[in-house]
Amino acid sequence: MGIFSKTCEYAIRSVFFIAHRTAGQSGRVGIKEIALGIDSPEPFLAKILQDLSRRGIVQSTKGPNGGFYLDSASLERPLSDIVAAVDGNDIFYGCGLGLKQCSEINPCPLHNEFKDIRNKIHLMLHETKIGEFNAELMNGMLSLKK
Amino acid sequence: MGIFSKTCEYAIRSVFFIAHRTAGQSGRVGIKEIALGIDSPEPFLAKILQDLSRRGIVQSTKGPNGGFYLDSASLERPLSDIVAAVDGNDIFYGCGLGLKQCSEINPCPLHNEFKDIRNKIHLMLHETKIGEFNAELMNGMLSLKK
DNA sequence: ATAATAAAAGACTAAAATGTCTTTTATTAT
DNA sequence: ATAATAAAAGACATTTTAGTCTTTTATTAT
Ligand code: SF4
Ligand code: SF4
C-alpha cells in the first residue's frame, strides 16, 4: 500500500475529478462518469462519495440531472480535509515505528528524520486546495487515470 | 496505518533490538526477550523473524544458547533492506494516488510534491544503517517500546 | 400525479493484514 | 545417546480493508 489507503486514493482522485468537471458551470456529474474518469470500481466509489457527501466535503443531488458537484467553499478546502475524513489524522501525527509516545525526550531512532517527512506531508496536504488543479485537468496536462 | 505496515514496524524495531544486544560480543538473544524489549506479540514476531532469517537479514541458531543475532555484514546494511523485504519497494517507487504510470509526461496533480517526499523517504532509509543506533540504544537515549 | 432518474442506505462477499497455536527440526550440554 | 532448549514450519483464527449487490429515498421532467 502507498501512503494513503486505496479508499483515500479513490477519494482524492474523485474529488479532483468532480472539482474540475463542475467548477464554474453549475453542472453535476454522475457516479458512472466519475468512476470511468478515474478508473475505479463504481459501487465502491459510490460508498466513498456517500461518505464524503455526508461529511459535506462534496455536494450532491438525487434525481434526473442530479449527481455530485462542489460548491465554491468546497473548492477552497485543503486536501488534508479529505485525507483526515477518510484515513484519519495518523499520517499527520502518527508514529513511523508504531510507538505510542513520540517525544523529544523518549524518541525512537528515526525521530528527527521522520518528523521532517511528516512535516513535509502535512505541509503538502494543507497547502494544496482541492480546486487548485482544475485548469491543468481541463486541458489534459494532468491525469487521474491508472 | 502509518507509513509502514505493522509487520514492518515490528521488523525494524526487532532488528534494532537484536543489533544493539548482540553487537560486539558474540551473544544471541531469544524471541521472548526481543518481544518483551519492543512490546510486540511474541508469536507474530516469531513469524516475522523467521522470514528475515530466511532472507539473511538476521542470523539465528537453534538449541540451547541459541537465538537471533547480527553478523558484522548485517550491521552495515541499510534500513531499506528491511523495508523492501517486508513491505516491498512500493514506498520507494509507488504512486501516492494509485496511478500506474507515474511520469513527468503524464503526472497526477501531486507529482512534484510527492516525488520530493518519496525521495526523502528513500534517502532516509538508504542512508541509515541498521547498527547505527547501538550506542544510543545501549545507554537508553533511544526507545523501542510502545 | 406519475414515471424516470440518480444518489443513499444497508446487507453481503472477498481478500489481505494481523495475530495465535501446535508440531517439527536443529543444536548443545550432560 | 539423551534430554533440554530454542527457532522453523505450518495450520488456524480474527480483524480490517476492499469490493459487490439489492432496495429505498429524493428529485425532476412529463
Ligand atoms: S519520529 Fe520516531 S518516535 Fe517520533 S513518531 Fe516517528 S517513529 Fe515515533
Ligand atoms: S507523483 Fe503523482 S503521478 Fe507520480 S507517483 Fe506520485 S501520485 Fe503518481
UniProtKB/TrEMBL annotation, chains A, B:
Gene3D superfamilies: Winged helix-like DNA-binding domain superfamily/Winged helix DNA-binding domain
Superkingdom as given in the UniProt entry: Bacteria
GO molecular function: DNA-binding transcription factor activity
Pfam families: Rrf2
Record-annotated membrane-spanning stretches: none
InterPro entries associated with the record: TR_Rrf2-type_CS (IPR030489), Tscrpt_reg_Rrf2 (IPR000944), WH-like_DNA-bd_sf (IPR036388), WH_DNA-bd_sf (IPR036390)
GO CC terms of this entry: cytosol
Entries under NCBIfam families matching the protein: rrf2_super
PANTHER family in the cross-refs: TRANSCRIPTIONAL REGULATOR-RELATED, WINGED HELIX-TURN-HELIX TRANSCRIPTIONAL REGULATOR, RRF2 FAMILY
Protein name, per record: BadM/Rrf2 family transcriptional regulator
